[in-house]
Every structure is written in C-alpha cells, then in structure tokens.
Amino acid sequence: MAFEGLAERLQGTLNKIRGKGKVSEADVKEMMREVRLALLEADVNFKVVKQFIANVKERAVGQEVLKSLTPGQQVIKVVNDELTKLMGGQQSKIAVASKPPTVVMMVGLQGAGKTTTTGKLANHLRKKHNRQPLMVAADIYRPAAIKQLETLGKQLSMPVFSMGDQVSPVEIAKNAMVEAKQNHHDYVLIDTAGRLHVDEELMNELEEIKALTNPDEILLVVDAMTGQDAVNVAESFNERLGITGVVLTKLDGDTRGGAALSVKAVTDTPIKFAGMGEKVDALEPFHPERMASRILG
Ligand code: GDP
C-alpha cells in the first residue's frame, strides 16, 4: 500500500510528542524538522512541504495549543488537519451536469491508467450511482488501447463507442456525443490519448476535444508511482486544459506516493478517485480525511 513509509515515520515522530503534558516551542521545532524530513523522503514536492510546515508551525506554536491541557494531542491535531487540507479537505464528488449527458474527459500520460480507469469509472457510475455511461475510445495512437476499452466494455456488459484508429479523435468525440444523446446515456467517458511526455500536438488535440464536447469534468489520471515528474506533468495539463480533478492510480502498489499528493497542491484541484488495483472494481472515491487519519495512525 502507498504511503506506508510516510505513515511509519510520521507516527514515530508524533508519538514522541503525543503524551507530553508540556510542549515547548523547541519541542515543536524539533518535531517539525522530523515531519519535514518524512515528507521529503516520501517524495512530496519541496515547495509543498515548505508551505505545509509553515502552516503547521503558525498554528502549532500558538498560545492555545502550547497552553492547552493536552498540548501534544493538539499539535497532532494540527498536523492531521493540515494533512487533510493538503489532500483536499472535503471529499469531492464527480460532477453531474444539470442537463445530461455529463461529459468526462480522461487525460494523462501513456501508462498512467486512463483506459483502465475509464472502465472502472463506468462500472462505479453504474453500480453506485445507477448511471448508464457510454465509454468512448478516442485513443487512436496507442496500439491496443481501443481493443482494451472494448474488452473492458464486454467484461462489464457496457457500451463502448469506437470508430477504429483511422478517424481523428475529435471526429470520434463528435460522433460519440450524438450517439450518447440518441441513446440517452447520462455520462460520456472519453478515453483520450496519452504520450510518454507532454507534447504540443497532443495538447492541441485535447483542447479541440474539450472545445467540442464542453466537458463537465477533465480528470487527470496520475500514476502514483511516478516521482516529481508527476508535478510538472500536472502543471502542464492544468495550464492548457484546466483540469477539474485528479485520479491517483496504483495506490495499491508499494509507492512513496508523495509526488502524487503534491499534484493536488500545485493544481489546486481535488483528488476525486484512487485506483487500488487492476480489476474493474478497484476504484474508490478519495477521502482526504480518512487517508490523513490512516497515515497518522
Ligand atoms: P493508459 O495508457 O493511461 O490508458 O494506461 P492503462 O489503462 O493501459 O494502464 C497501464 C497499466 O497500469 C495497465 O497494466 C493497468 O492494468 C495498470 N493499472 C491501471 N490502474 C491501476 C491501479 O490502480 N493499480 C494497479 N496495480 N495497476 C493499475
């Protein structure tokens, strides 16, 4: 599971202060030094760490905390609050358009898990929200992406709209919208192409699909195993497309996970879902509060 290293380090640090009847500024300082190291070691972006530490410090050395009856616990509460905030605060749900269909564009680098997540999300929407999504195979560049989505569709007994790989993704999206309206689908999930790196041509194409389909949700799919590059990638996608949320995939893996957490902070968009495995039911709504509590023990 992701964040295990971070959890262990933070819990170790916080345990030292937990039961203290008296906490001095020096104690807080020492604790913050260790929290800072734990976050950096977990690969949280350094700018994000800096801000996090500043926020905690400002609140933790306040008089109410140091003079309270249980200062150790108060300090831990501050860390917990700030960690929850870092991960997005309140849980953020998937958009629902006032006039269906709700259009969701899945974007991200190749291999991040877009196609898999498209299937998982379709399954989630049907199972938990009683919706009838149409999946759209608009990744014509990655060999096998279309087939992969079609296979997922068959497995789930859910429709996939595809036009092969000889038609432009923009054209596919356009036709898919017509089909969705005709067949009264309430969600359209567009699986777009990814590349190994952010490139101009891809961004232009995604912008075109966006202009045409007017999506209610642009979900950036981020592989939690990728390091700091995830932060740059997220910034690029956000600048060009204005993403509305993040899906962290592969959180079931043995990853430090900190870079992925930083994505929320740098794009200021919520993490909406977490991918917890390869299977179609391995998608969970992301709960910042629960995740923070789990990390802090
Ligand atoms: P795409 O290129 O972005 O469409 O990526 P894919 O959907 O093809 O996913 C790439 C690989 O990651 C596949 O082998 C998936 O099975 C795997 N994958 C996707 N999401 C998860 C996840 O949450 N956990 C694990 N363990 N593997 C995942």
UniProtKB/TrEMBL annotation:
Q: Where is the SRP54-type proteins GTP-binding domain?
A: 270-283
Q: What is its EC number?
A: 3.6.5.4
**What stretch of the parent protein is included here?**
1 to 297 of 448
| Residues at which GTP binds | 108-115, 191-195, 249-252
Where found in the cell? Cytoplasm
Entry superkingdom: Bacteria
Reaction catalyzed: GTP + H2O = GDP + phosphate + H(+)
Q: What is this protein called?
A: Signal recognition particle protein
Q: What does this protein do?
A: Involved in targeting and insertion of nascent membrane proteins into the cytoplasmic membrane. Binds to the hydrophobic signal sequence of the ribosome-nascent chain (RNC) as it emerges from the ribosomes. The SRP-RNC complex is then targeted to the cytoplasmic membrane where it interacts with the SRP receptor FtsY.
For whether the record's keyword set contains RNA-binding, the answer is: yes
Q: Which UniProt keywords apply?
A: Cytoplasm, GTP-binding, Hydrolase, Nucleotide-binding, Ribonucleoprotein, RNA-binding, Signal recognition particle
Q: What is the lineage of its organism?
A: Bacteria, Bacillati, Bacillota, Bacilli, Bacillales
- Class of enzymatic activity (EC top level): hydrolase
Q: Fill in the subunit field for this protein.
A: Part of the signal recognition particle protein translocation system, which is composed of SRP and FtsY.
Name the species this protein comes from.
Evansella tamaricis
What domain notes does the record hold?
Answer: Composed of three domains: the N-terminal N domain, which is responsible for interactions with the ribosome, the central G domain, which binds GTP, and the C-terminal M domain, which binds the RNA and the signal sequence of the RNC.
Instruction: Tell me the gene name.
Output: ffh
**Family in the record:** Belongs to the GTP-binding SRP family. SRP54 subfamily.
